[in-house]
Amino acid sequence: MNYPNNLADKLGFEAVQEQIKEHCISVLGQEYAEKMKFSNKFHLVKQWVEQVAEMKDLLAARAGEWPQTDYIDLRPWLGPLSLEGNYLSPEAWRDWQRALDVLYKCIRFFENLSEETSPNLRKLTQHYLTKNLEINLDYRAFLPVIQALGDIFDPSGQIKESASPVLGEIRRKKITEELGLRKKLDQLLSTAQKEGWVSKDFSLTLRNGRMVIPIAAEHKRKIKGFVQDESDTGKTVFLEPADALTANNEIKSLESAERREIQAILAKLSERVRPLVPMIEQWMNWLGLIDFIRAKALWAVDHKAIMPEMEEKQEFLWKEARHPLLEISLQKMGKSIKPLNIQLSTEQRIMVVSGPNAGGKSVTLSTIGLLQYIFQTGCLVPVKEQSKMGFFHQIFLDMGDDQNLENELSTYSSHLSNMRYFLENANPKTLLLVDEFGTGTEPGLGGAIAEAILEKLADKGSYGAINTHYGNLKNLADHKKGLFNAAMKYDTVHLEPLYELEIGKPGSSFAFEIAHKIGLPDAIIQSAQKKINKKQVDFDKLLVETSTEKQLWESKNAALEERIRQSNSIKEQYETLKTYLDEEKKNMLNLAKIEAKKLVKEANQKIEQTIRVIKEKEAEKESTKKVRLELANFVETKLKSEQSEKLKVENFNKSEGLDFKIAPSEAGGKSEKWKVESGKLIVGDWVLIENGTNEPTLAQILELKSKDAVVALGGIKSTVKLNRLTKVKAPKQEKKKYAASTGLDLTSKMAHFSHTLDLRGKRGEEVYGMLDHYLNDAILTGVIEVKILHGKGDGILRNLVREQLRRYPQVRKFEDEHADRGGAGVTIVSL
Q1: How high is the pLDDT of residue 648?
Q2: Contact present, 167 and 257 (Cβ < 8 Å)
Q3: Do residue 595 and residue 715 come from a single domain?
């Protein structure tokens, strides 16, 4: 049992509860939020937390797939409806129509959840389907009722004329009588206006449910009839002509018949729904629970809360834990919270927190208590991933001033009363939280009593945290098994609290430093230092010096880490540049080799030509001289044309050892396979299709359409943009073939082919080209099924994709992906 009874109030849990209630959209959910309570049953807490985590995921991925409005509470009507002969009003049934429709859709959605992704929410719904065998909980019984309500009531909640044949007949007769009466009275009114008995501004009206003519009081005897009413001044009377009496009586009779028939319809509807009342009551409770779980998930989103690892152990590990209420308050002031890293284990069970006043010790204590409490009410927790939550059977808190004048309890007495309860009831599954341990009396005595109590609590195996300024408790934490020190960090340079928790060492209260900062005279401070125990002064001084040196080294370490980071960044840049230069060198070397081969080939050809001329001229002196001169001119020209590349070639020649010996052997590169032709493209031309690789695809034009062309690729037709086509000479051995392709590496295409094409965010004109190219590759590689990812949105992109798919005879069918894997946002194409 938690202690004290108002533990939730002291920790601030009621504020969290109110935030969750505000997220509920129904009274049903708010009732569950009001009943939130701490549980010491681990399996129950684990189930609650997992339900909230699953709902949080659903809100992120599928929020629009089930109703999240009109969670109307039908319970107030269930009692009256259960009584025989009772029936509900049309206004009440209008709410029922909306509420049952929402309830049916919600149950259906949660019943069909995937067992892999949402097992707990699905199990919750299944539990309601089977929880009570005496009550039929088959929600499909709502469908006929929803249909009946739709047949009886229009969207505004009025009963339709088609609700029953009798009602329809009555209303038609009533309309006929009203039209006949109106026609007769219009004639009388027109005559009266001509005679001046009635003002031209007057028109037919109703009094006491009967249609009458307004007429001046002095002329009321001019028309035979009955006065049904008169104006406040008495100058105008509302006359029912004698000729209208019968028709008005008939209309009144039909109105009575209409009311009786409506009552019969409502009574019949109530009789139909009455057997479903117990089932509706059960499902109303379920809907409230779903609303409550949804509210807790939204609260978790607001506070960036997660589902940590959960263990039925008393130890925990929290990374960057945040007090949810304090965080919101700081955000409103434009400030950010300092997260806490806290760990309790079997070796270190009770944390002794010290440090200066207003340094965050009490906030640390409140954070531990509140986060553990909200976790054990089934909420997600504002901590970072990889945190672990422990589990406690009870939380004991001693915080604040609980002095009681009626019981004559002082502050210290109230603290001691709490400690007595702790000592009597604490056990290894208790979380203890004590603020300002031992204060309220003479420090020496208070410290001694606090030390004795703390030793006993440690021996009991309890877990928790205490705040203190007492040096003896800090010393005890250093050597007592189960205790350990922690301190709130303090900036000793600027004399400001840092609100950060540091585990492993005690902290100073920085009393003299704070006194100096606020301007207390140095003489007073020095006098105070002389008056206290020298050992205590030295101890605090050592703590301050240690804290200052630690801050200094932390600052130097941070600077060193920044330099290391910069060095690593420079190293990465160097390695990237080296890789780039190596690649450039390789490319330039290849280019030099190609140029060298070309030069050797041309030189060989020129030498061979020179030798041939010399032989033909039979080595005549003048002819030989002329030919040698031409050869020299050729060499000089080539040297000049290559001079701009000389340095690069020489460098690479030296590194690679290239030999430019002129030889009669063939050294030319491979010739192009396809010869490019100029001229306008026409049907029947052979073209190369640029496909973004080094080897284009050969095809034949079948049809020209504005900026597009229909081409043949083997036995496949495809539409391609004209700007992707290059006209080439027709292949000799393949002229009779419908189309051919060259340089197409099917093995590579199959290895690198993706079975999903992402078109999200693309424009219409981009979609046609990308989809066309993708389907061509899919057909060529023999794929039988692909996915087109286009998203849902307004459905425009999906319609464009599916319209183009209908043009492919190779497309066997296409359909939506499964709802759990994208639904209408993804199209599955079977080829």
Answers
A1: 46
A2: no
A3: no
Reply yes or no on whether the pLDDT at 650 is more than 60.
no
The one-letter amino acid code at 227 reads V
Is 673 labelled as part of a ligand binding site?
Answer: no
Mean pLDDT of 558-584: 82
Task: Count the domains in the chain.
Answer: 5
Residues 617, 753 within the same domain: no
Residue 506 marked as a ligand binder? no
359 annotated ligand-binding residue: yes
Structure tokens at 116: 């892999």
Containing domain of residue 708, as a range?
Answer: 670-738
Statement: the pTM of the whole predicted model exceeds 0.85: no
More confident residue, 283 or 744: 283
Same domain, 645 and 729: no
Nearest to 359 by CA among 502, 218, 473: 502
Give me the CATH number covering residue 79.
Answer: 1.10.1420
Q: Which two tokens stand for residue 231?
A: 């104006």
Does residue 1 lie in a domain region? Answer: no
Give me the torsion for CA of 466, 470, 475, 477, rounded to 10°: 0
Query: Could you tell me the CATH number of the domain that includes residue 788?
Result: 3.30.1370.110
- Rg of the Cα trace of the chain? 46
Residue 328: pLDDT band with limits 50, 70, 90: very high
Give me 557's structure tokens. Answer: 């370490």
Same domain assignment for residues 318 and 369: yes
pLDDT tens, residue by residue, 576-621: 888 878 887 888 888 877 877 777 777 777 777 777 766 666 555 5
Examine residue 168 and state whether it is found in any structural domain, yes or no: no
Count of positions (residues) in the chain: 831
Is 361 assigned a ligand-binding role in the annotation?
yes
